[in-house]
Amino acid sequence: MPLEPETINTVDDYVTKHIADPTWHRNFFGFLSDPNLADRLSDEFMSARYIYKLLEGLEAVGWLQRAEVRVQLLLYASIYEAVLHHVLFVDLTNIHEVVELTKQPRLKPYSIPADSLARLSAELNHDRKEIVPAYNSTAVIPLTQVRFDRKVRCARALGIVDEDLSGDLIAIYDARNAIHIHAEIRKGVEYELELSKMAYQRMQPFKRQVSEWLASNSDRVGVYSDGACPAQIGE
């Protein structure tokens, strides 16, 4: 059953006094060329802050603090990926480095005459496995199959984010992937509150670096809306 309205208002007042208002969050992603995406990410950012402050106010420890950390990692990693995905595959879709992200080397089998195949099989063998003729080729993979770390490294190569930030982004996303309980047990990952704080604290430098790069490289960007917000993230 829900809490009493008075209790709900008290909790909401406590949380909202400790986070930026909705307008600030709306403006934070104003550098993105897609207003709908900017609005959605604003909601995600605000929800991450709200949940954190709520659990911080409860002085969460143990299993509840671990849940607090996991929620933060999930939300912030998703925000970072959504921004980079949009900038690379929408704003910079025709840039060579971005196009290369969708290419994957692979062997492609091809047919040869039966007698040639028989001679080949007679000459070559490996651990009793069948050997088939193939040649090096390149396949185009769906955008959804491009790994996050490759997106980050591409952004680093283009100068969109710096080396330190790119390393932190990959670490945050790796931790997000390890949230799967079996993976956590296997990898021995310890979910520390400091890790979720890092995910939050990198938002401002991330936004600054991406928005500044877009503004100074507008000639390379397919669609760009200059709505960068100078607001700073607080404690």
Summary tags:
single chain; 235 residues; mainly alpha; 2 domains; two-stranded antiparallel ribbon; 11 helices; extended; disordered C terminus
Summarize the structure.
This protein has about 240 residues and is mainly alpha-helical. About 60% of the residues lie in helices and about 5% in strands. Strands 1-2 form a two-stranded antiparallel sheet.
What does it look like?
- The chain has 235 residues and is mostly helical.
- The protein has 2 domains: 5-102 and 160-220, no CATH class; 104-139, no CATH class.
- The protein is 61% helix and 6% strand.
- The protein contains 11 helices and 2 strands; from the N terminus they run αααααβαβααααα.
- It has helices at residues 5-16, 22-28, 35-57, 62-91, 96-101, 114-123, 148-158, 163-177, 181-187, 193-201, 203-216; strands at 103-109, 134-140.
- The radius of gyration is 24 Å and the shape is extended.
- Residues 223-235 have low confidence and may be disordered.
Rough shape? extended
Q: Got a strand count? A: 2
State the helicity in percent bands.
55-70%
Number of H- or I-type helical stretches: 11
Can you tell me the residue ranges where pLDDT is under 50 for at least 5 consecutive residues? 223-235
- The helix-and-strand class reads mainly alpha
The strands making up the biggest β-sheet line up spatially as 1-2
> Structurally, how many domains make up the residues?
2
- What is the gyration radius calculated from CA atoms? 24 Å
Q: Sheet bearing the most strands, described?
A: 2 strands, antiparallel
The average pLDDT value, as a whole number, equals 85
Secondary-structure element order, N to C: HHHHHEHEHHHHH
